[in-house]
From TrEMBL:
GO biological process, one term: cellular response to oxidative stress
Alphabetical keyword list: Oxidoreductase, Peroxidase
Lineage, broadest ranks: Bacteria, Bacillati, Bacillota, Clostridia, Eubacteriales
KW Oxidoreductase (keyword) present: yes
Keyword field contains Oxidoreductase: yes
Domain Thioredoxin: 1-181
Name the UniProt record assigns to this protein: Glutathione peroxidase
Pfam families: GSHPx (PF00255)
Molecular function as annotated in GO: peroxidase activity
Active site annotation, chain numbering: 35
Similarity annotation: Belongs to the glutathione peroxidase family.
Amino acid sequence: MSIYDFKVNNIDGKEIELSQYKGKVLIVVNTATKCGFAPQLEDLQKLYIKYKDKGLEILGFPSNQFENQEPGSNDDIKNVCSINYGVTFNMFEKSEVRGKETSPLFKYLTSEKPFRGFNLNDPEQKFFNAFLEEKYPHYLLDDSIKWNFTKFLIDRDGKIIGRFESPVDPLSMESYIEALL
């Protein structure tokens, strides 16, 4: 099994085979426009603009599973991403990214790159870990997505190279992206 075996619907409802991204470097990310991490959409867009001509694609999957931070329709999400954050990278339909109804794609991603904990030497990650320990301690007990903006970096051959948790700024992934391009 590889990421190229999956089919997903884009934000307009059209079925997309991920095999069309063979040979590209991918960032797959779950998003939410009302999340405190939503400004990462701007940084993801910066990376997309800078590297799309070299083979980077970003695939955004909205999810409303964390404190109702993505309640709108796919059309609402598309408009907010475009107008408020300038997003031109590929967005897909709302997805379940944890729990019983987790989409097959996110089951695959989290099984291939399980949660390895937060870097507690990083103040933002330490703070976020404490937030989860207090409010959602059960989230820390498995390998699933912990919150919005978990980012998976995938090489040109479809191998998942890294998992970057929610507090990690996408721009800090730039050296990893450049190495893969």
